[in-house]
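Data card: per-record layout.
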Amino acid sequence: MTRSLFVPALLLLLAGCVTTSEDEPQPWDNDERSELHRRMGVNYFQQGQIEVAKEELELALRIDPGNSRAHLAMAQLQTRLGDLASARHHYSRAVRLD
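The structure for this 98-residue chain is written out next.
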């Protein structure tokens, strides 16, 4: 009788040691990647590193053209650069998407 309980108990114990795909890190989706680059762009912009900020925001928008927050950040950056036509475009896209 004890042996008949030992085998199922052992199987349950071993089943807990198996690594499943749920335990493995999942790749980021485009929304997450775009948001990461948007945040980096905003941080660079706040530090005065305008060119790096612009590159990050452009990348965020290439990854996800529907990221309204990235459009808003790009609009603010373009305003700072004096490119009001581009700023208007990005403000407009941000409003339409939000």
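Known properties of this structure: The chain has a mean pLDDT of 85. DSSP finds five helices and no strands in the chain.

See the next section for split statistics.
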